[in-house]
């Protein structure tokens, strides 16, 4: 079967997107999804998303990591899917959609910046050398001095597969403070099993963790990632973080067809 696909990227976190509103796609075929994400034998991407119909909202988001397994929420993927839905004229400049972690609202501004509301965050675990929180996906966050030269893949894999996070694992974020309003971030992503150029739920987790651990008192924070610039804003309600938004570009790269 010949399938139309669309390639999007959000600050270098890249995705294959397929319009699956007719429910034709073989969602259980892990090997197929892994091949479509393979950068030599397939299209190449950090993840694959299906746009599907949803009875309550504009659409449903289904997300798979490049290992072919369905996974938890993808922030950059969610932003790219909103841009795709706008391209398809499924939505205008604002939308509500359902994803694995529930209902999301989003908007697209005149410059194509997509602002995605993330889930509320509470129950942050703060340890002396790292924090752990869930922003739709699980994230370990730790400060690193020489982030530029840090071996993210080796050190990230060691923590992700170590005793801290058991079978489920976690995404691993390494952060460096630039100033009170800006942090640099590099992320080892679970399910990609490598560093990605950006991680949206990771940027969200890092920004909240920097506030929760007193690195900054600000609630609107710039996150400089390898693939560009994201920003995160939120409000504190006691120990909870609400009205959490992940903002940044989400760009169409190319479209094509592929035999599956
Ligand atoms: N790899 C993540 C999901 C994608 C997260 C990332 N691409 C984002 O933008 O949030 C996980 O399995 O927890």
Describe the structure using short key phrases.
17-stranded mixed β-sheet; Diaminopimelate Epimerase, Chain A, domain 1; 44% strand; globular; binds 2,6-diaminopimelic acid; alpha+beta; 260 residues
Characterise this structure.
The chain is α+β, with helices and mostly antiparallel strands. The chain folds into two domains: 2-116 and 250-259, Diaminopimelate Epimerase, Chain A, domain 1 (Roll), CATH 3.10.310; 125-248, Roll (Diaminopimelate Epimerase, Chain A, domain 1). It contains four helices and 17 strands. It has a 17-stranded mixed β-sheet that branches. It is globular and about 55 Å long. The N and C termini lie close together (5 Å). The mean pLDDT is 98. It binds 2,6-diaminopimelic acid (API). The site of 2,6-diaminopimelic acid has 19 residues, from helix 2 and helix 4. It is an enzyme of class 5 (isomerase).
Following the backbone from N to C, one meets helices and strands in this order, namely EEHEEHEEEEEEHEEEHEEEE
| Overall body shape | globular
The kinds of small molecule bound in this structure are: 2,6-diaminopimelic acid
The CATH first-level class of the largest domain comes to Alpha Beta
Tally of separate helices: 4
Distance between the termini: 5 Å
Question: What name does the CATH topology of the largest domain carry?
Answer: Diaminopimelate Epimerase, Chain A, domain 1
- The pLDDT mean sits at 98
Catalytic activity: (2S,6S)-2,6-diaminopimelate = meso-2,6-diaminopimelate
Keywords: Amino-acid biosynthesis, Cytoplasm, Isomerase, Lysine biosynthesis
Pathway: Amino-acid biosynthesis; L-lysine biosynthesis via DAP pathway; DL-2,6-diaminopimelate from LL-2,6-diaminopimelate: step 1/1
Subcellular location: Cytoplasm
């Amino acid at each position: 079967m010949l399938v139309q696909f669309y390639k999007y990227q959000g600050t270098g976190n890249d995705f294959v997107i397929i319009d699956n509103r007719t429910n034709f796609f073989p969602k259980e075929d892990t090997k197929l999804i892994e091949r479509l994400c393979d950068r030599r034998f397939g299209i190449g991407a950090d993840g694959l998303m299906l746009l599907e119909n949803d009875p309550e909202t504009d659409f449903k988001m289904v997300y798979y990591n490049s290992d072919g397994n369905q996974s938890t929420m993808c922030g950059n993927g969610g932003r790219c899917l909103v841009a795709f839905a706008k391209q398809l004229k499924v939505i205008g400049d604002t939308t509500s959609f359902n994803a694995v972690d529930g209902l999301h609202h989003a908007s697209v501004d005149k410059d194509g910046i997509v602002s995605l509301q993330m889930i509320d965050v509470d129950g942050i675990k703060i340890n002396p050398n790292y924090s752990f929180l869930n922003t739709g996906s699980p994230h370990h966050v730790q400060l690193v001095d020489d982030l530029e030269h840090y071996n993210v893949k080796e050190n990230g894999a060691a923590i992700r597969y170590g005793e801290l996070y058991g079978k489920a694992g976690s995404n691993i974020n390494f952060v460096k403070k630039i100033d009170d309003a800006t942090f640099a971030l590099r992320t080892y992503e679970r399910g990609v099993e490598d560093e990605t150029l950006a991680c949206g739920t990771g940027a969200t987790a890092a920004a909240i963790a920097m506030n929760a651990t007193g690195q900054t008192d600000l609630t609107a924070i710039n996150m400089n990632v390898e693939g560009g610039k994201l920003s995160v804003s939120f409000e504190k309600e006691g120990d909870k973080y609400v009205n959490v938004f992940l903002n940044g570009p989400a760009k169409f790269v190319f479209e094509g067809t592929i035999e599956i």
